[in-house]
């Protein structure tokens, strides 16, 4: 695997080493030792999540606050998504900035999102199966988030907004300024 540092400190694009032969492919989707060597971060994941969505479904921007904050290692098993990580770490020099990465079943690319980031994705293919590892357990009481179309973050979700499908919960998330005021 190779870890590519993004413009956001601690957030890495992970390029996996895929072994292909006449049967198909194999790759180590996570190796704690190699990950630490490449990123300088020792991560102990404790929970795996998986979701399945159709084209236009937009999940996010979510995070867990305080002690319940989660680092995530995310990838796509089937389909294609645009994955977004937003730096909302208090005092960060890149506060409010984001990275956008296309994760597909073909490229096997992963994104490592540190604690203190908001995360979301939109499905660009007909359907997508999304898998991610978390280094902290789900804590509903600590859930928070930022509205997907906040003008200060200014995410280009790549497809027409008429195709978007969000949960009622996500449509009521606060803007970055309101979120920041509560930090
Ligand atoms: C996240 C989570 C949810 N749930 C339950 C709570 C709800 O009854 C149901 C669906 O939850 P939600 O609508 O929050 O699922 P997503 O919109 O996919 O949320 C995720 O979307 C973005 C992309 C993320 O990065 C987060 O990990 C996570 O917030 O699963 C659990 O039981 N455990 C969990 O860890």
TrEMBL record:
MF GO annotations: dTDP-4-dehydrorhamnose 3,5-epimerase activity
Site (Participates in a stacking interaction with the thymidine ring of dTDP-4-oxo-6-deoxyglucose): 138
Catalytic EC class: isomerase
Catalytic activity: dTDP-4-dehydro-6-deoxy-alpha-D-glucose = dTDP-4-dehydro-beta-L-rhamnose
Pathway of action: Carbohydrate biosynthesis; dTDP-L-rhamnose biosynthesis
Keywords, alphabetical: Isomerase
Catalytic residues of the enzyme: 62, 132
GO biological process, one term: polysaccharide biosynthetic process
Keyword Isomerase: yes
NCBIfam families with a match to the protein in the record: rmlC
Known partners and oligomeric status: Homodimer.
Its job: Catalyzes the epimerization of the C3' and C5'positions of dTDP-6-deoxy-D-xylo-4-hexulose, forming dTDP-6-deoxy-L-lyxo-4-hexulose.
Family listed: Belongs to the dTDP-4-dehydrorhamnose 3,5-epimerase family.
Record's protein name: dTDP-4-dehydrorhamnose 3,5-epimerase
Taxonomic classification: Bacteria, Pseudomonadati, Bacteroidota, Chitinophagia, Chitinophagales
